[in-house]
Amino acid sequence: MLIPRQKTPDLSVDTLDQGRFELSSENSDRGTVICFYRGLHCPICATYLKELEKLAEEFAKRGVSTIAISSDTEERARAMQDKISAEKLRIGYGLDLSKAKEWGLYISTSRGKTSIGIEEPALFSEPGLFMVTPEQTLYYGSVQTMPFVRPHFSELIGALDFAIANNYPARGEYTGDV
């Protein structure tokens, strides 16, 4: 389990148009929003990523970079980029599933074709949304076992505004006995 205020695992993936993403080399003022998505086969992911694409500039105005990452191949990631008309959102691909597990993501097995007629990969990760500070510590994290009921990016922006204005720390950091 990742712990707020503690260093996150390293993360390095290829992106479609911006070279290699290296979390340890990110240089945004306030951090990075990392959206792990299931893949091209997931229609909910497409809708979700369209929202992140629309708000990528709002995050950037606050000093936060964004990236969406899946274990899809480059070809499938490119198809998702085209599907959501991504121009501002970085799309990472080829996430190793052992790395997905390090981030606490759940792994699912294929059930064949989805409702939109696209074959699921044999194995893929379920969604996760994280905000990582410039020091590569966890500020916010949400992982899911299903594609449904995801955090809203507009609410994350509102929370970010509050956190900036009030110097609000990451919460959930206690690891002692209870």
Supply database-style keywords.
single chain; about 180 residues; alpha+beta; seven-stranded mixed sheet; two-stranded antiparallel ribbon; globular
Written description of the protein model:
The chain is of the alpha+beta class and 178 residues long. The chain has a single domain (12-20, 28-166), classed as Glutaredoxin. The protein has 4 helices and 9 strands; from the N terminus they run βββαβαβαββββα. The chain has helices at residues 43-61, 74-84, 97-102, 153-166, and strands at 12-15, 20-22, 31-36, 64-69, 90-93, 107-109, 123-125, 128-132, 138-143. The strands form 2 sheets. It has a 7-stranded mixed beta sheet, covered by helices on one side. Strands 6-7 form a two-stranded antiparallel sheet. The longest helix has 19 residues, at 43-61. 35% of the residues are buried.
